[in-house]
Design a protein that fits this description.
Low-confidence stretches: none
Structural class: mainly alpha
Strand content: under 5%
Number of helices: 8
Order of helices and strands: HHHHHHHH
Amino acid sequence: MIHTGKTYNVSFSALTIPEHIKDKLPAWYHIGTNNNLHGFLNSRAPKCLKSIHWIRTTGDLVRTSNQIHTFNPLNFHQDLPNCPCTPCTHDRVSSCPNPTKCCHTAREILTPFKPKWNPLSNNLNTDGFITHTQMEKSKRRHPDAWITTSL
């Protein structure tokens, strides 16, 4: 199916992506990024995210990156490889050598996602319908494209 799409220059496009769908999309080789992350994904921290943290979806990336950003005065995160907070201690017990680096890397992986696909950004038009302005803009950009709507 992917080969046929490439042959006929067809791609997937959606007006808006609901948050629960964004969280379930694959974290690796994501459809919403146009940057080539292949070399970066083979470095140490992404490999740790895949094998030790079991990151599979963008929701997993968000949860991992947020664990160092949650504020708890009794369990304060320190931006150090040997941070004593509970989430970092748990990750080190699971064989992660530097949980802080993995959390920052998870956020870095989410950064190049286009806003429509990024689970950290909110869609302005979330009802799933195309507005008249959006349709006119799309017609100007792609005069030969078919625009389908559903009622």
